[in-house]
């Protein structure tokens, strides 16, 4: 099921007619100086370096950091396109929150046979310690990143759900800021929905789920530290929200209450936006060798004295094996049909699926069930015979660790590259917030595969980003 027809181009589709969202941009581009985009690209690069937006790539030389490439041509979505997308991603997060509450309480969806029990109860991210516990407000996923791909005019599919510590929102915000500096005339010509209120929306959601009785809650952002690949984002969001950026050693627990060390003495902490994985949060409850967490934090959490966002144990719901069942969750919990479809998926632990995939490896995308960031993938149409052979051996050795999906003809957007303007494949990660209600900021992070023909948009694999414009009219 490889690419046989040209992919859908979001600016001009077949190349003959400019689609409505891009018509104003196309007219502007036709009258712009030939070297304008080149000059703006250089200015954007300089601004990003000055701001210090870097991304550490694990596996590269120690301490190596680099800029995520930024494209100066925006991705533009109509109001109607966004209306459908926003409904779809909010619906999905609502169902996933219900699923998480269920699997840690009555497990009705397992008893109904809709989701296999072994996928949940045997999952490495399922936390027995969370059974019977309800987080403040009943919210498990306070911040969700839903990766969406497009294959046609109205064909959007969810590629995966990111529910543990989804990253990338700082790039969405900085991309917009840079574009407004570089192209103020375009923002005058277009009515683009704002995104810069995201930090305030996030803070309001976090305050809403503070423990009962805490009317003016103290919120902090807990980071593993400057060697984490997303440290820039942690520092950026803490500053934008006006909250303290802390590491584990800045916090302590006394009488099951969390405190922050300050020069004025201990200050109670009510909500922790944590960017640390479950295992490292509390050496008393999880990994004893963790130097990143706070001893006693989990007990304070269980007693309702502090809120963690996202909740412990959310990883069971963004596992790639669970992904297949999200449409059924939407029907089961919400009584609705899914707005956004899943990508067809084969589970290699099933004999029939495995037999099919092993016979068609050169046509499919194969992923590790617990993988993220584009690591450990096989993209069959782009892989060598040797790579396919080696991946085949990995599958045979541990088939339950893999899923496979068709190689979708991801949509393309015009992108400024060394050769000029050329189509490049893109995806979209909207950021969904849940507190009192579930909402999404209009836009999200568009990631772009900068190498010609590449389908891998992940920044860790050489991808870049674009500003995403949602038109208000």
UniProtKB/TrEMBL annotation:
<dbReference type="Pfam" id="PF14403">
    <property type="entry name" value="CP_ATPgrasp_2"/>
</dbReference>
<dbReference type="InterPro" id="IPR025841">
    <property type="entry name" value="CP_ATPgrasp_2"/>
</dbReference>
<feature type="domain" description="Circularly permuted ATP-grasp type 2">
    <location>
        <begin position="74"/>
        <end position="449"/>
    </location>
</feature>
<dbReference type="InterPro" id="IPR016450">
    <property type="entry name" value="UCP005522"/>
</dbReference>
<protein>
    <submittedName>
        <fullName>Uncharacterized conserved protein, circularly permuted ATPgrasp superfamily</fullName>
    </submittedName>
</protein>
<dbReference type="InterPro" id="IPR051680">
    <property type="entry name" value="ATP-dep_Glu-Cys_Ligase-2"/>
</dbReference>
